[in-house]
């Protein structure tokens, strides 16, 4: 079994790492403090071909693979987890849902702008009473000639306040339950779509997250994703499987970023006449952090390769997301502790990384859901 990354993958890592260090890291604390999304830096990601990494060139992509995209999310998240998830939602959820399920005409119309960074994409599934239980969504779509009329509310939707293209889920036949759900490509300019409350969050503060309100929203019938009703629930669940690998990569990057900050601090900080790392108890805590990061890394890359190779990846994505997000929460918490009082202050990035890490255990399916997925596969 070859654990070495290809030269192409190594090139992507180096390119994205340099971009993140130069374009994101210097201002990451300010983005977090003010809740500002680095839109100009994000557009530069598009110009470098990073946003469209997993899509064919014919749709405006870079012709890479899913692992390339995962490596990019990881590198970005080392310095700014919020930008990491905004990128992931755009590429894996919005563009991914379109690429895997849309008609050829829909792909050619929408993917080039999303893949290039000219427009930001969003994914509207969660509702006030339909989080983990996505099938309980109340948003409805009624066919009216050559258009659909959508009514409902979506919450906690990443990128929504600044997005221009949405994949929105709504029921076209309530009597069929999940089998009556459909997916639509909705443009910000369509009549009847608006942004409600923009969330004030504990972490990933520069990522823009808000409500999407649909009040008699007019969507052309040609924007029914794939031009097929009743496939929305399966589209949503399959898309989330891929999205979980993106969240796992985000979590892995956050953990790695906090680990490197702790390592640097322990080399520089002296107490009782010696560097912190020379205290065996503290050094062993770093060893535990290193172990959890490496365990998570292989599960994340394994899930990405399963998707690359056309293998079933739902369970491997669940493993990766659970392991990496728990690792991120453990490593960032330990990093704050190793910094002592300084770790609690905003002068150092580990407190931000700790706040960012928590959400990775919750969104894209809570880690309790990942346990359900894995245990269900064990006993199926």
TrEMBL record:
What does the record give as EC number?
1.3.99.-
Which cofactors are named for this entry? FAD
Report whether Acyltransferase shows up as a keyword of the record: no
Q: What top-level branch of life does the organism fall under? A: Bacteria
Instruction: Quote one Gene Ontology molecular function term.
Output: flavin adenine dinucleotide binding
> What range(s) does the Acyl-CoA oxidase/dehydrogenase middle domain occupy?
122-217
Keyword annotations for this protein? FAD, Flavoprotein, Oxidoreductase
Per its UniProt record, what InterPro entries does this chain match? Acyl-CoA_DH_CS, Acyl-CoA_Oxase/DH_mid-dom, Acyl-CoA_Oxase/DH_mid-dom_sf, AcylCo_DH-like_C, AcylCo_DH/oxidase_C, AcylCoA_DH/ox_N, AcylCoA_DH/ox_N_sf, AcylCoA_DH/oxidase_NM_dom_sf
Domain (Acyl-CoA dehydrogenase/oxidase C-terminal) ranges: 230-375
The Acyl-CoA dehydrogenase/oxidase N-terminal domain is annotated at 7-117
Q: Which family does it belong to?
A: Belongs to the acyl-CoA dehydrogenase family.
Name of this chain's protein: Acyl-CoA dehydrogenase
Query: Whose protein is this, by species?
Result: Clostridium homopropionicum DSM 5847
């Amino acid at each position: 079994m070859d654990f070495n990354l290809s030269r192409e993958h190594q090139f992507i890592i180096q390119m994205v790492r340099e971009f993140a260090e130069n374009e994101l890291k210097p201002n990451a604390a300010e983005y977090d403090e003010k809740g500002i999304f680095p839109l100009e830096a994000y557009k530069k990601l598009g110009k470098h071909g990073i946003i469209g990494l997993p899509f064919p060139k014919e749709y405006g992509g870079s012709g890479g693979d899913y692992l390339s995209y995962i490596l990019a999310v990881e590198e970005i998240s080392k310095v700014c987890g919020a930008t990491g998830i905004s990128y992931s939602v755009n590429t894996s959820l919005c563009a991914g849902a379109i690429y895997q399920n849309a008609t050829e005409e829909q792909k050619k119309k929408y993917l080039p702008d999303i893949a290039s960074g000219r427009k930001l994409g969003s994914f509207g599934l969660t509702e006030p009473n339909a989080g983990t239980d996505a099938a309980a969504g109340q948003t409805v779509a009624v066919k009216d000639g050559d258009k659909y009329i959508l009514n409902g509310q979506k919450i906690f939707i990443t990128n929504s306040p600044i997005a221009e293209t949405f994949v929105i889920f709504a029921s076209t036949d309530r009597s069929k339950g999940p089998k009556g759900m459909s997916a639509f490509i909705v443009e910000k300019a369509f009549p009847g779509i608006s942004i409600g409350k923009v969330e004030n969050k504990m972490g990933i503060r520069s990522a823009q997250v808000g409500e999407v309100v649909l009040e008699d929203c007019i969507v052309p019938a040609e924007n029914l994703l794939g031009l097929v009703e009743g496939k929305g629930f399966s589209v949503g669940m399959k898309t989330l499987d891929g999205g979980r690998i993106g969240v796992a990569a985000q979590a892995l990057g956050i953990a790695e970023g906090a680990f490197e900050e702790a390592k640097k601090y322990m080399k520089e900080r002296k107490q009782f006449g010696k560097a912190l790392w020379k205290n065996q108890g503290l050094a062993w805590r770093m060893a535990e952090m290193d172990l959890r990061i490496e365990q998570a890394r292989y599960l994340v890359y394994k899930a990405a390769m399963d998707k690359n190779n056309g293998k079933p990846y739902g369970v491997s994505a669940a493993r990766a997301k659970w392991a990496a997000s728990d690792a991120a929460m453990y490593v960032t918490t330990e990093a704050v502790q190793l910094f002592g009082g300084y770790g609690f202050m905003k002068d150092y990035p580990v407190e931000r990384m700790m706040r960012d890490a928590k959400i990775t255990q919750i969104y894209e399916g809570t880690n309790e859901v990942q346990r359900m997925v894995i245990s269900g596969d064990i006993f199926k």
